[in-house]
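[agent] plan:
  1. take the single chain provided in the ticket
  2. run structure prediction with default settings
  3. attach structure tokens to the ticket
  4. add a short note for the reviewer (M.T.)
[agent] executing step 1
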Amino acid sequence: MKIHLNEMIFYGYHGVHPEERKLGQRFIVDFSYESDPEHDRQIKHLEDTIDYTKVFAIIKETLEKQEFHLLEVCANTILDRILTEFTTIISANVRIKKPSVPINGSLSSVEVEMERRR
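[agent] step 2 finished; step 3 output follows
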């Protein structure tokens, strides 16, 4: 089974530049995870599956309560926390999009994508 949490929007204080960490900005996060098909056959109740509201809460806390200089570190932290918490996840993918990039030029966003498999 694959579950996708799409376009979650958080306000955080992440970035290399001091202004980014002082003023903050929006981040858009997509997170997908996959569970073992053999385990999926056993699902009958919420307790038998991976509650995506708990996955959302971990991502929200990470983006809104912590500060990172690099999105790569933020992505690693999210993956580490979720894979530690939910041992039945066999793969996970996180994409963090930063729409307001302090670059002297024109672009709509920067995005970091990271994937892990057990």
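[agent] step 4 note for reviewer: The chain has a mean pLDDT of 94.
[agent] ticket updated
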